[in-house]
Write a structure and sequence with these properties.
By secondary structure, this protein is mainly α. It contains five helices and two strands. The chain has a two-stranded antiparallel sheet. Strand 1 and strand 2 form a beta hairpin. The longest helix is centred in the middle third of the chain and has 24 residues. The mean pLDDT is 86.
């Protein structure tokens, strides 16, 4: 099952911006998901798993592009525990939202959900 950009965007409308998430990007990750997610293992979860896979990687790619455009280093990711700007500071309990052993998939909510479903369908080591 290779998802089309329009099918993906209908399920995940937050990716509707074709400038930030061009069709070529969505198609690339749809094809990668098609190679990665085994239909026999994923069964009825395959479509949703495919969309989560696409969403996770598109979110990471869009962040890398934005970081590079702002003069930063693309590809740096991770869960931010705290941040300060001037006199304002904010911290988060990252343990509450991190999936143990999920590696890079903890970088997005889509990746965390993908890992949860992967574990439900019996994929122990997805990362």
């Amino acid at each position: 099952m290779t998802a089309t950009p329009s099918e993906f965007r209908a399920a995940f409308p937050e990716f509707a911006n074709k400038t930030t998430y061009p069709d070529a990007m969505v198609t690339y990750y749809a094809e990668l998901a098609n190679l990665t997610l085994n239909i026999e293992r994923w069964g009825d979860f395959l479509t949703h798993g495919t969309y989560l896979f696409i969403a996770h990687y598109c979110a990471l790619r869009a962040k890398a592009i934005a970081d590079a455009a702002a003069g930063g280093i693309p590809g740096q990711s991770g869960v931010i525990a705290s941040k300060s700007v001037s006199d304002v500071s904010v911290s988060f309990d990252t343990n509450a939202s991190v999936e143990a052993g999920a590696g890079i998939y903890n970088s997005t909510t889509y990746g965390r959900e993908l890992i949860k479903i992967a574990r439900m369908v019996g994929i122990v080591a997805f990362v």
